[in-house]
Amino acid sequence: MPDAYGDAEAGAVTGDVSRPTERSIEDSHPSTEARADELRFRLYTVAVLTLGIAAAAAVSAWLPFHYSVHLWWIGPLLALAFLGAEQLGVNVDVRSGISWTISFTEIPLVIGLLVAPFEVVLAAHVVAGVTTLLARRVTGRVLYNAGAFLLEVTSAFAVAGLVSHALGDPEHMPWLAALAGTLTAPLASTLLAMAAVRVLRRRMRIGTVIRLAGRILVVGFVNASVGLTGYLVISKTPEAWPIVLAVSLGLAALYWAYSDLLREQRDMEALTDVSLMVARSGQQVASRPAGKVGDIGLDVDLDEWATIAERIRDQLAAARIVLRLRLEPDEPLHTVVVGEELPPAAREDRGADDPLLRLPGSHVRHLRITEANPQVRAALLARGASEALAVPLRSAHRLLGIVEAHDRLSRWRGFGKYDVQLLGTMASHLATALDNRRLLATLRHDAYHDPLTGLLNRPGFRQVAAEPLREFPSSVVLRVDLDVFSTVSDALGYTWADRMLMAAGRRMRDTLGPDVPLARLEGASFAVLLADCDSERAQQVAQRLRSQLSAPYPVERLMVEANAVVGYVTTTAEEHAERTDVDSLLQRADMAVRATRGGEEVKAYVPSMGQIFLRRFQMVTQFRQAIEEGQVTVHYQPKVALPGKQVLGVEALVRWQHPEFGRVNPDEFVPAVEAAGLVGVLTSFVLETALDRVRRWLDEGLRISVAVNLSVRNLADEDFPDRVAALLERFGVPGELLTLELTESDVMQDPERALPILRKLSDLGIELAVDDFGTGYSSLAYLRQLPVDQVKIDKSFVFGMGTDLGDLAVVRSIVELGHSLGLTVVAEGVEEDLARDRLEAMGCDVAQGYLISRPLSEERLEAWLQARTARSLDRASEAVLTLLT
User: Fold this and answer.
1) Could you tell me the strand order of the sheet in which 387-395 lies?
2) What residue intervals traverse the membrane (predicted)?
3) φ and ψ at residue 642, rounded to 5 degrees
4) What residue spans define the domains of the chain?
5) What backbone phi and psi angles, to 5 degrees, belong to 867?
6) What is the pLDDT of residues 489-519, one digit of tens each?
7) Sign of the Cα pseudo-torsion (253, 254, 257, 259, in order)
């Protein structure tokens, strides 16, 4: 029949009914509801005991006592039989949280119905049950179980008596009556269990109750049939007892085999359930938004682990499961408890003072209070447990947590080898899951955070900012740029620049507080989200950030001066309705940053800024088509020799007449084209157009060179010299009639990479010129190595020659330096006669500027040459153009 000792019938079905299941996390105390459940169960115990005594008295009065003194031994023999039957009990898990013990008490009960009076069987059953409870120290449920014992035997004899009267043989107990009475006893136990479930306000499905009652009847029928058949066979044929014994042992072996098979199935289901729970919670972790700075822990909800612990408790039929998890590497263990309440003192992470928290290895330890050393015994007593299974959760010799299972809910046995094996396997799964989740948390952190500053990166900022932007109609996105970063990198190296960035990140975090989303986007650019913020507060925060970031940075024994610019954009209710995304806001804030000028270091975005960038975007996308349609043309600005005034060549300058925007300044579209990677297309177009013009001049008998500006990207293209050589060959132009101009800053940006390409171009006979000389880094060491032929004095110095003695000295120095290096010196921006005369007096070789001519289209250049120059033949019979005075 179902388990009636220790756990009681209700305990066998629902777990420990005398103490309601309690799930607790961290510090909790017994709830009022738990105390009310305890009180209800005590009242229910009194009712069961009272009902059992009353029923026993009624049945005893109905069935008179008939007993022979010569049969005194039947009572003790039945008591021993009940004890032995229970010792051979087989515990079977019906489903999660429901256990069912198959015992053989139906065998002595059915025999007792046939050979002994009611009082003897009742006394044998009650004495055997109470003795077992006391031996197992299960004192809290003795009265309930005593009442259950009384009702089991009473109901069995009552039904058997009714069947006997119905069969017309009330003086004797027919075998059919004994069988019916025996089947009544387990059903009575089941009814008591269902009533206990209702008393404790637990739920149990009707289908589960019906299936359980059906199994109880089947097993009870088999056990009763074996007992009844054995009694009848032995009573008729005494020498047949070995066969009866063999059948009984075979039935017991069959039960044990079924129990082991079902236990393995249940263990596999439990492992699968636990693995799925961990996998689902891991998927939830992966889908959570990026956390705060430094948030690399397990990122788990302790409620999830309470659910996992509940499943382990159900499978082990334990009174309590304690999970101690280390969520952060340096934090104490967090405690999760399901089942019986854990004493407050046992919740604390006492480290080395608790032997269960410092178990070596990763194997399961089975600890019993009767066999443990004093330290372990004290630890178990502190937990209020008589036995425990404890297993550390480790990964690479690092403690991730501990699983403890306390006191198995069984009257006959504690935790067995199957429980140890199951908990060990589950612990291995949990340790792997914890390690994987920690790795996942680390990968998520790295994916959404900047490794240098620890702040969010662009993807992390995008994810964190999405929810507040949806929630608050008015929010602000700021973009902050440190404009000293590249200078520090070049002067002191990237190590010190990185230290500046880390210091800037700390300053911003201290200014904004820990809860404001802050990200390093790239380089020295940062982004901030101010949720539920208006423009006035955004301006204040932006000014405060700029002030903090512009303070000097101590680098070693230096104080590096810095400057910061801030651009911000405020969302409106209309934009919120359109679900403005983070990237769009960052782009607008970036536009505001680029619009900062001079002393205006903080600027708010206005829609007109977007029009500027939209215009640039349109120009970039239309550039190829513009070349094909003839919108992009080449103009030429003449260069003359000093003092002879011969026209030596022209500089090719690109112009764009846009059908929508009109004439577009090269300073606007050339950087955009270069940034879009189309500078190769532009350079090829200008080269082809210029060389075609030189070819036609050669056909006219004129040797006029052309100068073409190059980009730094051309110097990074190893195939560029070969393409230039192919163009020279295609148009039949000598290399000396082509000059390629490079800005000083472009050459010095990566001289080691540019040097081989420049040498290849020089080998083609091409003239190389350093443009805007004096405005860049001016490294004489590299200038001597470069195969350049000309230096061009920047027009800013030429403009200031007449009023600024410093500019005059710079121009004189460049002329002298160029001549000392054997270079031709070209002066740009010559617009006045005084400047031309001073340059000529200094010995400058070539002049170029508005004094001579503005950049002209090809047709106007031809007219200019015809109107302002005279042609003469030199000794080589080649035409030379001389500027008319």
Assistant:
1) 23-25, 334-339, 318-325, 398-408, 387-395, 365-368
2) 41-63, 70-90, 110-135, 142-163, 175-200, 212-234
3) -115, 130
4) 8-21+30-236, 273-448, 458-605, 616-867
5) -85, -30
6) 555 666 777 888 888 899 999 999 988 999 9
7) negative
